[in-house]
Write a structure and sequence with these properties.
By secondary structure, the chain is α/β, with parallel strands linked by helices. The chain has a single domain, classed as Rossmann fold. It is built from five helices and five strands. Helix 3 packs parallel to helix 4.
Length: 121
């Protein structure tokens, strides 16, 4: 069975970087550049793993994570940000309270080996 990866990140270059790195692990990948698109795609594409950017225009990753955790999804989550690490701490606390399985957090710029380690879950 093919594993599914959903990438939610407004930076096209980073999303493509994650997608390329995931090829090693045989993921079926979908990329969304905003949370509204991610909500829409989740009707047809249920991921095993999600890479979620915390800071995005419009609805941010923390708001999306709050919504995601209230749904019946069982995906593991990798949180990423290029901004203040305190965003990451807040997202981790919220996800632990909601029961979302955050496997790791990554600070941009992300090193390829760190990303591969995170994707190997």
């Amino acid at each position: 069975m093919t594993k599914k990866l959903l990438i939610v990140d407004d930076e096209t270059e980073f999303a493509n970087f994650v997608s390329s790195a995931s090829a090693t692990f045989g993921y079926d990948v979908e990329i969304c550049h905003d949370c509204a698109s991610a909500r829409d795609i989740l009707d047809q594409f249920v991921p095993d793993l999600m890479v979620l950017d915390i800071v995005m225009p419009g609805e941010d990753g923390i708001e999306f994570l709050n919504w995601f955790s209230s749904q019946s999804f069982d995906a593991k989550v990798i949180l990423v940000t290029g901004y203040n690490p305190h965003y990451m701490e807040m997202a981790q606390k919220l996800s632990s309270l909601s029961g979302t399985k955050v496997v790791t957090t990554l600070q941009k710029p992300v090193h390829l080996q760190d990303l591969r380690d995170a994707l190997s879950v």
